[in-house]
């Protein structure tokens, strides 16, 4: 059945990507959630902790621990939030931005390797499908 094959293919791709993410994070002395935190800050800019937690789909307590560890490594910094004195903004440091850019470059390289066997029209179709199924409902 096609649904079974799709399910197996999605699981196989997920496992391949997660294994790659673990390897890349380990090389930098980070965890996968820490690299995702850096990526979220790189994409969205400085964020209040609560909003960062929301983007990451986790709790503010979890994000606080992640930010504490990333701050200790010099990858992020906290700033007062001028718009809301009750919250703190978190942003990447220059070191954190450099780390993220290297990580993003590796993502692009991995994507190119994964897509190499596909013809341009297949790549375009895959992109369309992925964008369709990952749209918020």
Give me the strand/helix succession.
Answer: HHEHHEEHH
Oligomer: single chain
What is the CATH superfamily?
Winged helix-like DNA-binding domain superfamily/Winged helix DNA-binding domain
The percent of residues in helical segments reads over 70%
Give the class-level CATH name: Mainly Alpha
Report the uncertain regions.
none
Order of strands across the biggest sheet?
A: 1-3-2
Q: What best-fitting shape do the alpha-carbon axes yield?
A: elongated
- Number of DSSP helical runs: 6
Global mean pLDDT:
92
Give the DSSP E fraction (strand runs of 2 or more residues): 5-15%
Output the structural class. Answer: mainly alpha
> How many individual domains?
1
Largest sheet: 3 strands, antiparallel
How is the CATH topology named? Arc Repressor Mutant, subunit A
- By CATH, the architecture is named Orthogonal Bundle
The count of DSSP E runs of length 2 or more, i.e. the number of strands, is: 3
Terminal residue distance: 26 Å
Q: Tell me the Rg in angstroms.
A: 18 Å
Protein name: Transcriptional regulator, MarR family
Pfam families: MarR
GO molecular function, one term: DNA-binding transcription factor activity
Domain HTH marR-type: 1-135
């Amino acid at each position: 059945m096609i649904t079974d094959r799709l399910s197996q293919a999605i699981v196989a791709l997920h496992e391949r990507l997660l294994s790659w993410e673990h390897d890349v994070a380990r090389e930098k002395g980070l965890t996968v959630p820490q690299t995702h935190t850096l990526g979220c800050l790189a994409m969205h800019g400085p964020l209040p902790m609560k909003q960062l937690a929301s983007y990451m789909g986790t709790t503010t307590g979890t994000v606080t621990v992640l930010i504490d560890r990333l701050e200790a490594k010099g990858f992020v910094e906290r700033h007062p939030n001028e718009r809301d004195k009750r919250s703190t903004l978190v942003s990447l440091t220059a070191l954190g931005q450099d780390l993220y850019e290297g990580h993003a470059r590796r993502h692009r390289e991995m994507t190119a390797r994964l897509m190499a066997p596909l013809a341009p029209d297949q790549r375009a179709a895959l992109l369309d499908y992925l964008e369709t199924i990952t749209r918020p409902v």
